[in-house]
Amino acid sequence: MEFHRKTPSLTVSLLIGLICSCTQAHSQKDSSGFIIFPVLARSIETGWSIGAAGSFTFHFKDSKHTARTSNIQALTIYSTHRQLVAAVNGSIYFPAEKLILNQQLSYSYFPDKFWGIGKIAPHSNEEEYSYHQYYIYLHPQLLLAKSFFVGLLYEYQNVANVKYDSGGLFDKENVIGRYGYHVSGLGLSFTYDTRNNAFSPNGGMLMQFYFNHFAPFFASNYTYTNFVIDVRKFFRIYNQQVLALQAYGFFNEGVVPLRSLASLGGASEMRGYYAGRYRDKNMYVFQTEYRTPLFWKVGAVAFGGIGNVGSDLKEINFQYLKYSYGLGLRFALNKAEKLNLRLDYGVGGNSTSGLYLQIGESF
């Protein structure tokens, strides 16, 4: 399942116990369904991990033909690296989609890795650190015109008990936020969305721009503004085959703390890189994915992407360009709603690679 990028990515690389316990209250009439299953897994970020994941999909009464399927997803997992993440997120589509509510609540204790800030971060720089994080993300959107939404965005992040090697990279690079902090910000979003499915569209597009301003007025320790642009386009090619394209930009202006920096890698973009392998104030990613059905409930994908990070707009160029590519499989958990379990193997630069298993597509 996909979570907002400020929550640590506990992506699963190898599912040992496939859906050991699964209940799905699904009917053609209301298109509702509930799936819950235990997970025993291994990933490049977590090592071995155990936990539970779940997904609930539903429509409001008499809204099946006027709104996309609402979904609430949850994940709790603990790893042999002593990482703990508990998160709930979702998208709720009210009748006629006059109101859409996206939200996420999470807590994490996360021993992690850090290679420094910037596009040049050698493997030899690798250092370990850990932190506790509480996170709130609320994003209600109002329909103003056909497929066009204006939203209010609120984000809160509390990072505490940051532990790292004294005199190492955190001190040498004077990393902002290394002593712990909290930030709180309010912003606006503008969205044009014609996708025909909330989980795995085969047509339409998404264009979204938002900004979020963090300042002492909102009880934030640091003052900065975050700008994000996300453009996705989906083409149905032949016999249910789909070409998906995405251009994603993440930009900051001001004094930006550690966990609010742009972070390249993970399950959502540039699969094959450790989540946060490269960090800086700004980032861009271009990626594409070709999706095709195989048989029964099984499908396959091929994907690739390029991206980079930089301290300012001039620095996010094609020097030291990062790239990734890979293959994946899909299994339909709810074929009517196109809710898929995805297993991807991604390869990045410098011989990095990773396996990911999630509920829902990467974009």
- What count of helical segments does DSSP give? 1
Gyration radius over CA: 20 Å
The CATH topology: Porin
H and E order: EEEEEEEHEEEEEEEEEEE
Low-confidence segments:
10-30
CATH superfamily placement: membrane protein fhac: a member of the omp85/tpsb transporter family
Structural class assignment: mainly beta
Strand order, largest beta sheet: 1-2-3-4-5-6-7-8-9-10-11-14-15-16-17-18
CATH class: Mainly Beta
So what's the overall shape?
Answer: globular
Report mean pLDDT, rounded to a whole number: 89
* Count of individual beta strands: 18
Classify the beta-strand content into a percent band: over 45%
Q: Tell me about the biggest sheet?
A: 16 strands, antiparallel
Distance between the termini: 11 Å
Q: Provide the CATH architecture.
A: Beta Barrel
**Relative helix content:** under 10%
Protein architecture, described:
- The protein is an all-beta fold and 363 residues long.
- It has a single domain (97-359), classed as Porin, CATH 2.40.160.50.
- Helix content is 1%, strand content 57%.
- It has one helix at residues 169-172; strands at residues 33-43, 47-58, 70-79, 84-93, 99-114, 127-145, 148-163, 181-193, 204-214, 224-236, 242-254, 262-264, 278-280, 282-295, 298-310, 322-334, 339-348, 353-359.
- A 16-stranded antiparallel β-sheet has the order 1-2-3-4-5-6-7-8-9-10-11-14-15-16-17-18, with no helix packed on it. Strands 12-13 form a two-stranded antiparallel sheet.
- The longest helix is centred in the middle third of the chain and has 4 residues, at 169-172.
- Mean pLDDT is 89; it is low at 10-30.
